[in-house]
Design brief:
Elements: H1 2-8, E1 12-19, H2 26-45, E2 50-57, H3 69-82, E3 87-92, E4 106-109, E5 114-118, H4 128-146, H5 173-186, H6 191-194, H7 200-221, H8 232-247, H9 249-257, H10 260-281, H11 295-329, H12 332-339, H13 348-367, H14 372-380
Parallel strand pairs: 1-2, 1-3, 3-5
Antiparallel strand pairs: 4-5
This protein binds zinc ion (ZN).
Zinc ion (ZN) is lined by residues 141, 145, 151, 159, 383, 385.
């Protein structure tokens, strides 16, 4: 037992704090304060890990205002991978651009293991002490997300409008246990430290074997099923094309002519093709580009593609259900007439599958109408808070 404990105490959690020293005179003071405060706090709460915080100063920060969290996440993620940090916090005192909500203080991305934190609202809190406690509380909330926690009203994981607090907030007992487990897996050596291969295919395979279950968890719980709620044009294009399909006799005739087993193959190909078309159409392959053979970069790419694929597949399932309901509501005789199969029972399920498949084709076109930045943000952000 003692041996095991001794071994675990060596596990290093290495976190970077990235700042732009040209931003103003305060930011460096804040980075230094947070570095010490976080190290002290986390070392006392999780003594089984060795906590290291490093400050990185970069003069080539994206300059546009308000700061776009998406740009900063990508900027930070590249620097994190280059410098072999486990996690990276991009710290700024300037306001952030909000995409899906209003007045935000931070955007974590558990996929990129990177977060953007703005102190701009906290710097408006009244007392110096409140600012400090507030900033630590906010960062604990964000770190909680990076370490796989969801919201919980009983702890620091409660979402809040204001982070001006006098009182330090904490994770609850259950959350601390989860964090310790999560960090144990993160602090394991990365694949590039153990694999010793220069072959891209073998490297991807190694990552898949080592990380399969955790990748799957990330993909399925990475809100892939909610992906399209935030993408208006995408959903609209699908809805419009489905309505036209329902009204055109050709679609029904074609449905009658296609055998069910062929339809299954076509369906699979269509989902793959539309995932690929979104992935490359939206330049998602550019994420984590700084180094091809780093576990974290490969992880991000697998998660991104997987999320898109699962998102497409669940979108298809929704379309199938909707089509099934609509076909049942329409007069069966008329449809049978359109399909040219008068007198036979209408294969409702077969036609629902066909319509849903057409819908997915249309949606991949619609998806490419979305702003590139928005679709990326939906996939990469864990939340805006
Ligand atoms: Zn949150």
């Amino acid at each position: 037992m003692d041996d095991e404990k001794g071994l675990k105490s060596n596990l290093l959690v290495n976190t970077g704090i990235l700042i732009d020293p040209l931003e103003n005179s305060q930011i460096k003071v804040w980075a230094l304060f947070l570095k010490d405060a976080l190290k002290k706090e986390l070392s006392s709460q999780f003594p089984q890990f060795a906590w290291r915080f490093g400050i990185i100063e970069r003069h080539d920060f994206p300059k546009a205002l308000p700061k776009d969290p998406l740009t900063l996440l990508e900027f930070g993620s590249d620097i994190k991978i280059e410098n072999n940090y486990d996690f990276l916090l991009v710290l700024t005192s300037l306001p952030l651009k909000a995409r899906f909500s209003q007045g935000i203080s931070a955007v974590p991305s558990s996929m990129l293991e990177t977060a953007v934190i703005s102190l701009s609202k906290i710097l408006e809190c009244k007392k110096e002490e409140i600012k400090k406690t507030g900033a630590i509380n906010l960062i604990k909330h964000i770190l909680g997300h990076l370490w796989g926690l969801d919201h919980d009203d009983s702890s620091v994981m409660k979402p809040r409008k204001s982070w001006c607090h006098e009182r330090p907030l904490d994770w609850n007992h259950e959350e601390k246990r989860h964090i310790a487990n999560f960090l144990n897996s993160v602090a394991d050596p990365r694949v590039e430290e153990t694999a010793g291969t220069k072959n891209t295919f073998l490297f991807y395979l190694r990552v898949l074997i080592n990380e399969g279950p955790s990748l799957l968890r990330d993909i399925i719980f990475f809100r892939s099923w909610r992906m399209f709620l935030n993408l208006g044009r995408f959903t609209a294009a699908t809805a419009v094309s489905i309505i036209f399909l329902f009204l055109s006799a050709e679609a029904w005739e074609m449905g009658a002519a296609i055998q069910s087993k062929w339809l299954d193959i076509i369906l699979f190909l269509v989902i793959i093709a539309s995932t690929l078309s979104l992935y490359f159409g939206q330049n998602l392959q550019g994420i984590g580009k700084s180094d091809k053979m780093k576990e974290q970069a490969v992880r991000s790419r697998i998660i991104l593609f997987g999320t898109l694929f699962i998102g497409m597949a669940s979108f298809w399932l929704n379309l199938l259900l909707i089509s099934f309901v609509i076909i049942n509501l329409l007069p069966q005789k008329v449809i049978a007439g359109w399909a040219g199969i008068e007198g036979n029972t209408l294969p409702v399920f077969h036609f629902s599958k066909l319509m849903a498949t057409f819908g997915i084709l249309a949606s991949s076109v619609g998806g490419n109408l979305e702003e590139e930045q928005d679709i990326k943000a939906v996939l990469i952000y864990t939340e805006e808070t």
